[in-house]
């Protein structure tokens, strides 16, 4: 086992490796090229009886583990949404690991609780959220959404479901658009409301939820004795970054007294730009909002900012007080284990604090504006090309498009060609992007948001896409 002296030596070597890796990450194949079970089969079938040297372990990390890593920090990573990191975030994560604090209540690390409260206050002001929102860091938007659905359930039932379980009288309904993230469906299932009680509302030509269709669905449900519980509005859907009309949805939720949750998991970071605050017109009537600094705010996974208007409802839903957790400070401080599902909590606020202080608000804004500008430029290039078409509005940094071969009108054949383009690009190791389907049309999806992405990376990606499309067709 390592002692302090050996730890110093090994830690310096690891930090040097990390610095080299982050400087040279774009030289690696972006997407891992290993076959299924290849990594597994290289690992011993049982743990070692005696301890092994860190040098040997680290060598195996480089020889066995690294080839099986998809390099999310590569500026040639354009898939999904980014899971960004940055130098200050890595430094803070190292400190978090060293401290090893279990930050479940104020008593177990006062600084963790108070820094979290302060940093979430910073985020609230940075993004233009209402003063009466209170924030807490969750591990991800899926957890935050589940917390929302359960809190809405409890508040609507007078906290009776937590106490005695479901009766036959609830019959709750939850509403979202057909484009909303799958975490909504998962939350509805876990919360006991049932998948069949998730009502998916049609979208318009911009892939935004239709407010009039929402009203009809709610009124039909009320007429059948159902209870509208919650509406989820998306600010930046996963497939296309579509924006739901929050102001209209807020008015509807106010009229029918339903909880309004705003899912801005990715695009919420854009609220640091004053020119994007139009997205949250009507936010004063929302009950909760979530966005992930671990996606587009250069803070490594996991760090999800969850804001609620009625923190007492949230706490009442999740609080539980066994004797061993009773303290004399309860009620005077934030015990964040009562603000969500898990009891155990990592000291996530530290890395967010490091990032915001090191970048500054202006530094974060500059990066976000650059990514949006690069996406707009790529959109223009694609739109000008005779054999490519833009498939969805480019509101942020995500461009949805497809290749259109000449004299080919068969949707299935066009879908197949675009799928081949995607797989060939990803197998090349030179870039990584993903796909979605829009009205049954296979769509290539390129998200420009990695921390250190530059114009040359996007230009190179567009060159590779054109070259590969020509080869495939």
Helix content bin: 40-55%
Number of helices: 15
- Average per-residue pLDDT, rounded, comes to 94
Number of strands: 11
Sheet with most strands: strand arrangement: 1-7-6-5-4-2-3
Looking at the structure, the CATH topology of the largest domain is Aspartate Aminotransferase, domain 2
Return the domain count.
3
What oligomeric state is this? single chain
Assign an overall shape. globular
Would you tell me the structural class of the helices and strands?
Answer: alpha/beta
Please give the radius of gyration in angstroms: 24 Å
Query: Strand content of the residues, in percent?
Result: 5-15%
Output the helix-strand order: HHHHHEHHEHEHEHEEHEHHEEHEEH
Largest sheet, strands/sense/barrel = 7 strands, mixed
What is this structure's SSE topology?
Layout lengths: L3 H21 L13 H5 L11 H12 L21 H13 L10 H18 L6 E5 L2 H16 L3 H5 L7 E6 L4 H9 L7 E4 L9 H13 L3 E8 L11 H11 L2 E5 L24 E4 L1 H4 L7 E5 L2 H8 L30 H36 L3 E3 L7 E6 L7 H18 L5 E5 L2 E7 L7 H18 L1
Parallel strand pairs: 2-3, 2-4, 4-5, 5-6
Antiparallel strand pairs: 1-7, 6-7, 8-9, 9-11, 10-11
